[in-house]
Design brief:
- The protein is of the alpha/beta class.
- The protein folds into four domains: 3-75, Ubiquitin-like (UB roll) (Roll); 117-199, Alpha-Beta Plaits (2-Layer Sandwich); 266-334 and 526-632 and 654-693, Rossmann fold (3-Layer(aba) Sandwich); 340-520, Dimethylsulfoxide Reductase, domain 2.
- It has 27 helices and 29 strands.
- The strands form eight sheets. A seven-stranded mixed β-sheet has the order 15-14-27-26-25-16-17, covered by helices on one side.
- The chain is globular, with a radius of gyration of 27 Å.
- The mean pLDDT is 94.
């Protein structure tokens, strides 16, 4: 039943009970606080969120659950004076240069900080963090986020009462076991803990780009000074939860300011590397590829795009394979994951709805560790649950961070059987939408019959999950009309197929306002397949049978024979059948459980060319030419999110002698004899638009001026 509460005279209707603080924030009403963060359990230490509840008196909003009919006033003269007194006590020892949320509250309540700064409370010993405990407000967010969210104990509290202080485990942050995740920076409301690059940044110019850490491709603003990128912030007007994750906010630095990023192209000589000019590196790469083709034929070479890149780089990668190397051996690394095959019935691992719409569902179901790989979306899901807008069902391992905000948790040792148990409960309860499922999956009726025969009890026992949890999950899913299923898919077979079945049976594939959002944990770039980075598909969604049309538009010959996909190229390389590989994007060996198999394959390839911003283990030890390309904060072109949102990267600058991916690929194309000259990323995009009718109206100007989406999913 909906819960109705009056906050400052405004009626707020919730799908379920939540705290007063979350209900107010969901309604756009700001209640002051310093110690509350959605990722942490409510703590109540700052005492600033005090509100007046009719008939109950003063209560802490972060710790008080709303009740139907409750009336709340968030600020009265008494409450304002209470807050002012707390802030005065903080201001007595807080330096005058206040920043962050506490500075906003000082200004709001007319309080002037007047504390003296002690040099002994400043810790500059860490390469990435700057700590000034003169500004600590005693919220203990850093201590709690490190323990509750990150699972470490770097920050500790010492002493008691007014003497309580926060300090690193060893006394100095630089000698601690800190992993530089910057979670403590993110939750600090006073600037007591800062990221050294962004905390002191003074950008002289700004550009725009998209984060490439996951398939959401959150739009970002990037600040630059004379040395390169120094500041990143999400463009919330374009995507509300953009950069609400530690990766997007801070870990771009790991692609720019790290020793693994070379300052120039490199050529391997035996076991060592030598620095080279771009002209020399491109010539060596082109000569090596020509030699490989001469020795083994076009079928012995291939191109693998291993990470999320602008569409222009995708386009030139497939052009390099087809026009320069004479092969259809080109693929996105995402195709090697089980999800690519298992989700073919619905057009591949691409969302059936926009990621923004997920938080508007009545019921959200997450499968697997969404927070681990797609933190921005996880933050939106958590907020929808905490603010009482959506019921949240989590099917995952016991350590899943979203479980703390869930209404129902199905703790799973093995994901696929656990999801199947919930499917069985949904069917057995008679609440599965079999009719709707049949419109999306041909086998929906036979699936429902087999699940009914299996039964919830047996399915739960086989999965090793609590039968009651599976039934509660099914009941929660049936309680709402709009259902969103979000599945985090790694290399485990079966999870994608079962998640798709659950989405179908719950109505997520057939009802308006519902949707299925499959997410890839590794090699998250399946949209490249739909843009032509595929052994069997050409730009514009065409098959090889339509090659003549593409040849007419491109003026190049397209090989007739279907090529090898990523998994086949890796297997052929292990068998010694691949003479050369071009890997475009991140190190294909570093980010996944397939690392050992991929490394073994790369070692057996006589010539490997890598175009990547940093050198991972595969590039460092198994490639022969390394061309340093731009990180996503320095790129140029159009990023395409998994749900088809286009973001234009422009106004950026590269650091450390890198070229943007399209520039490096364009040079390689010219050196291998393809008569194409591109002076800008826009030239490439316009050529791609002529080949792909889905992009025909998406000019750079239209993308820059407002939201543009394209449909990537095959019918």
């Amino acid at each position: 039943m909906p819960v109705r509460v009056i906050i400052d005279g405004k009626e707020v209707v919730l799908e379920k009970p939540t705290t007063i603080l979350n209900a107010a924030r969901g309604a756009g009403i700001d209640i002051p606080s310093l110690c509350y963060d959605e990722r942490l359990q409510p703590y109540g230490s700052c005492r600033l969120c005090m509100v007046d509840v009719k008939g109950k008196g003063l209560r802490l909003a972060c710790l008080t659950t709303v009740q139907d009919g409750m009336e709340v006033v968030t600020e009265t003269p008494e409450i304002a004076e209470h807050r002012r007194n707390i802030l005065r006590m903080l201001a007595e020892r807080h330096p005058a240069d206040a920043s962050g949320r506490v500075a906003d509250l000082f200004k709001r309540y007319g309080v002037e900080p007047s504390g003296k700064e002690s040099p002994r409370l400043i810790d500059d010993s860490h390469p990435l963090l700057y700590v000034d405990l003169n500004k600590c407000v005693g919220c203990f967010n850093c201590v709690r986020v490190c323990e509750e969210y990150v699972g470490r104990l770097i920050w500790r509290t010492m002493y008691r009462g007014e003497q309580t202080i926060v300090m690193p485990e060893t006394g100095r942050i630089g000698t601690s076991s800190c992993i530089s995740c910057r979670a403590c920076v993110d939750v600090c409301p006073s600037g007591a803990i800062l990221d050294k690059v962004m905390g002191f940044a003074k950008p002289s110019s700004w550009g725009e780009t998209a984060c490439s850490y996951c398939s959401l491709s959150c739009p970002l603003k990037v600040g630059f000074d004379g040395s390169g990128p120094v500041y990143v912030e999400g463009e919330r007007d374009k995507l509300p939860f953009s950069a609400e994750c530690l990766k997007g906010k801070y870990h771009w630095e790991d692609l720019v300011y790290v020793p693994e990023r070379p300052e120039a192209p490199r050529l391997r000589s035996g076991a060592s590397w030598s620095r080279a000019s771009w002209d020399d590196a491109v010539k060596v790469a082109a000569d090596g590829l020509r030699k490989a083709i001469a020795e083994g034929g076009p079928g012995s070479v291939g191109v693998i795009v291993s990470s999320r890149l602008p569409a222009e780089a995708y386009y030139l990668s497939q052009l390099l394979a087809r026009a320069a190397l004479g092969t259809n051996n080109v693929d996105a690394a995402a195709s090697a994951l089980p999800a690519a095959k298992e989700l073919e019935p619905i057009g591949g691992p691409l969302p059936t709805t926009s990621v923004e719409s997920v938080s508007g569902a009545d019921v959200i179901v997450t499968v697997g560790q969404v927070e681990e790989y797609h933190p921005a979306l996880a933050s939106a899901i958590r907020r929808a649950s905490l603010q009482g807008h959506s019921r949240l069902v989590v099917i995952s391992s016991p350590d899943d961070k979203l479980s703390r905000s869930a209404d129902v948790v199905v703790e799973a040792r093995s994901l696929a059987p656990a999801v199947r148990a919930v499917e069985a409960a949904l069917v057995e309860s008679g609440k599965a939408d079999v009719e709707g499922a049949s419109t999306a999956l041909k086998e929906a009726r036979s699936l429902a019959l087999s699940l009914r025969s299996l039964g919830t009890s047996r399915a739960a026992k086989e999965a090793g999950v609590e039968e009651s949890a599976a039934r509660e999950a099914a009941e929660a899913m049936a309680s709402g009309r709009r259902v969103a299923v979000v599945a985090e898919l790694d290399t485990t077979p079966g999870v994608a197929a079962e998640s798709m079945n659950l989405a179908a049976l719950s109505g997520a594939l057939s009802r308006e306002g519902s949707g299925f959002v499959p997410l890839l944990s590794y090699f998250d770039n399946y949209e490249a397949v739909e843009l032509g980075v595929s052994p069997s598909r050409l730009p514009g969604g065409r098959g090889l049978s339509e090659a003549k049309e593409v040849e007419g538009l491109l003026g190049v010959k397209v090989p007739a024979e279907e090529g090898m996909g990523t998994a086949e190229m890796v297997e052929a390389a292990r068998d010694g059948k691949v003479r050369a590989l071009v890997i475009v994007g991140s190190d294909i060996a570093s980010p996944s459980p397939m690392r050992e198999a991929v490394l073994e394959a790369l070692y057996r390839v006589p010539f490997v060319v890598a175009l990547s911003s940093v050198a991972g283990v595969g590039i460092e030890y198994a490639s022969h030419v390394h061309m340093p390309t731009a990180s996503f904060v320095e790129e140029e072109g159009v990023y395409v999110s998994a749900d088809g949102r286009l973001t234009l990267a422009r106004g950026t600058r590269t650091a450390k002698g890198a070229l943007r991916a399209w520039e490096a690929l364009s040079r390689l194309l010219s050196a291998t004899g393809v008569g194409r000259a591109y002076s800008s990323a826009k030239d490439i995009w316009d050529e791609l638009r002529r080949l792909d009718s889905r992009l025909s109206s998406a000019s750079y100007d239209s993308i820059a001026s407002g939201e543009v989406r394209v449909s990537l999913r095959r019918a």
